[in-house]
Amino acid sequence: MELDISEVSKVYRGGKRALGGVTLRLGPGVLGLLGPNGAGKSSLMRIIATITRPSDGTVRWDGEDVVARPDRLRRVLGYLPQEFGVYPNLTAAEFLSYLAAVKGLSAQSARARIDELLELVNLTDVGKRPLGKFSGGMRQRVGIAQALLNDPELLIVDEPTAGLDPEERVRFRNLLGDLAAHRVVILSTHIVSDVEATADDIAIMAQGRLLRRGTPEHLLGMVDGYVWETMIPSAELIEFRERHVVSRAVRTPDGIRVRVLAPEPPTIDAVNVPPDLEDAYLNVVRGVNQATAARAEFTREAP
Ligand SMILES: Nc1ncnc2c1ncn2[C@@H]1O[C@H](COP(=O)(O)OP(=O)(O)OP(=O)(O)O)[C@@H](O)[C@H]1O
């Protein structure tokens, strides 16, 4: 199981360049693909899922070109697109049976698989209710179940936790982790905490380019020593933000506790704190729009 993405570009009709030469190779496990809105994540996911063609470059699954010969990949693919629509009058079980038929599963094996999947995504009790009456989170879980119908080797989930409540989010992350042992999973999101718990491999994209790839430890190591916390009066926050890279600001009864990315302490009493993944992500993506060296990405790596 190997997905090999090489120099993939995408220019949409009208000239919008969504991807500018992305190269990534991945095997079993969860890859967390992080990037702000518009980074090109969905475009890349659609290309891998063989829904969109790249303008340039190649995608290979186990050595086979998926643009020229998409069928082999499609058989082993599970895909939860960002916008996942359901038929409101069908029940979850009916909807999954319909999709199973589309995917070519026999009626008998589909029935057993659907029961198993409804259990897995915790929808067994409501399997006979029309989807129109489902909450956003429940619908999303149906989406996950449909992506797993064919027990895929390659599972792509695009912004899967949108609309999930915090409890559902945690359940979903655990589920993804469990699924990753024997398949290639790509989890595309702009929410850092989604990948924090599940991915041991993280790729960060912005403006159609892959900026960084590494383990969480690797990304954290890049900002180790550059993260500070300090208290400032509420009235100074706007001005403070103009002068510093603020990764978080939390109101407290004593003022605002700000978290800052900087090579030197931003105030006299600032305390150096261990970085988290939000800091590491901000450090990578903020550099993209900043031309000046002073604002360039920090790194403790050799160039
Ligand atoms: N079909 C399309 N035609 C023209 N431009 C498009 C099309 N699809 C996406 N784009 C543009 O390409 C860029 C990348 O979009 P894409 O959806 O791949 O990013 P993303 O990282 O998934 O962001 P989001 O989470 O907001 O969807 C954006 O500027 C978007 O407006």
UniProtKB/TrEMBL annotation:
Name of this protein: ABC transporter ATP-binding protein
Keyword hit for Flavoprotein: no
Presence of keyword ATP-binding: yes
PANTHER family for this protein: ABC TRANSPORTER, ATP-BINDING PROTEIN (PTHR43335)
InterPro entries attached to this UniProt entry: AAA+_ATPase, ABC_transporter-like_ATP-bd, ABC_transporter-like_CS, P-loop_NTPase
Organism: Amycolatopsis samaneae
Superkingdom of origin: Bacteria
Lineage of the species this protein comes from: Bacteria, Bacillati, Actinomycetota, Actinomycetes, Pseudonocardiales
Ranges of residues in domain ABC transporter: 3-232
Keywords in alphabetical order: ATP-binding, Nucleotide-binding, Transport
Homology family: Belongs to the ABC transporter superfamily.
